[in-house]
Amino acid sequence: MSYPAGAVVVVSGLPGSGKSTLLRRWSCTAPVVDPRASHVACEAVMPAWLPYAVYRPWARLRHFWWLCTEVRSGGPLLVHDCGSRSWMRRWLSWMAGRRGGELHVVLLDVGVAEALAGQEARARWASRRVFARHRQGLGRLLGTLCLHGSTAVREAVSVVLLDRVSRERMAAVEFGPERRRSENA
Predict the structure, then answer these.
(1) How far apart are CA 82 and CA 75, in angstroms?
(2) Nearest Cα to Cα of residue 42 among 170, 135, 50
(3) How does pLDDT run across 51-86, given as a tens digit for each residue?
(4) Number of H helices, E strands in the chain
């Protein structure tokens, strides 16, 4: 896949669907903002006895600050996101647009069984409540896409839907020259 040089590409899907794996494969072409990195960085400076729930707000604030910094940098950017939060896509689109960039979405639709198997393979589980919330949000998004096509995600210039097979075949992403905006746009 090819995107303009300043594009922000959000990779979304259920926990365990392969977002991190795909982003690692693509990371040689653009910086990757993954909330897991903020979680791990916060965990490293906290006492081992302190549960994540206590410092989760700090981890989320750190992640949001990092995301703001990277989006403002103006270069291409790959973002790991669950996809269930439309406000995040709208905000990313607005931030990218302020610097002349575009938002694009890559949506992994691998199914619940595949996502749960992915969680088992990495030995890291989303709680049932969190998984159900992501599943519900992603289900709404997929349903809207089925009814209205890619125009359902108005904040994105493009939406690419990948299943398990196409996810595995998507070896690389590239960022090319900026697209010229038409004078009528």
Answers:
(1) 22
(2) 50
(3) 998 999 999 999 999 999 999 988 899 999 887 788
(4) 7, 7
